[in-house]
Amino acid sequence: MNPEQMPADAGGAPRFDLDPVEVRVLGVLAEKEALTPDNYPLSLNGLTNGCNQLSSRDPVMSLGEDVVQDTLQRLIERKLVSEVTQAGARVPKYEHRMRIKWTLEQDKLALLAMLMLRGTQTAGEIRARVGRMHEFASVAEVETGLQFMIDKYPPLVARLARAPGTKEMRYAQLLSGEDAVEQQDAATNFSAAGDAPRRDRLSQVEQEVARLRAELEGLARQFEEFKKQFD
Asked: Which of 164, 183, 181, 161 minimizes the C-alpha distance to 172?
């Protein structure tokens, strides 16, 4: 198979099949392009550090440079990454080609990168987190950008059902394939369903505390009235 071609599902429709490390590497390249343009393209060391960040990453990874180097080679073969040799540079550097590959402007690329780096999120969560890469005026503007990528062929983003106990729709990147999204969605729903009984118990406790507080305040008032009889 031509490395640039995407595999197809049983129905013949093209699909993505990037593994989690490939998604992380691409997401970091897109993020650092926006946040630290003076240090972009990235060296292997800088890219590895970005992949292993403890903040703004879900899940947190611990990757060696050898793993990142192998991943870069696969992405280069698929025309998703380019190796750049800069004049005077002692090491090669790397840049992503997602903007060209999928015809994405910066606002769409920022949304996709956020989903790649932080996993399934609501439009409100994305807007709160993506501001350094691109400032969105409203949640509706985020949703418009996400819809653009949902409507692409093949789609880059999927809209998921609401998790139990939540009000907002969630979104996920499709670069790892629909199966990976379904597994992540099932895990999220299982976690949310497990949290529901705890939330119910907490609500009951809060109601009981409020009732006892009201009774205590009533007894305090009665005691004050009783004291006045002896003043």
From this structure: 181
Domain count, the chain: 1
The CATH number assigned to the domain holding 92 equals: 1.10.10.10
In contact, 94 and 42? CB cutoff 8 Å? yes
- Tens of pLDDT along 82-133? 999 877 778 999 999 999 999 999 999 999 999 999 999 999 999 999 999 9
Q: To 10 degrees, the CA torsion angle through 139, 140, 142, 144?
A: 170
175 Cβ partners below 8 Å, 6+ apart? Answer: 16, 18, 22, 23, 26, 116, 156
Sign of the torsion angle spanned by Cα atoms 125, 131, 137, 140 = negative
Token pair 């497990």 is found at 194
Position 134 in a domain? no
Contact 48, 68 (CB under 8 A): yes
Any idea which residue has 């890219």 for tokens? Answer: 47
> 75: domain range?
15-101
**Order of all β-strands in the sheet with 170-173:** 121-122, 170-173, 157-160
Q: What share of the chain is helix, strand, coil (3-state, %, to 5)?
A: 55, 10, 35
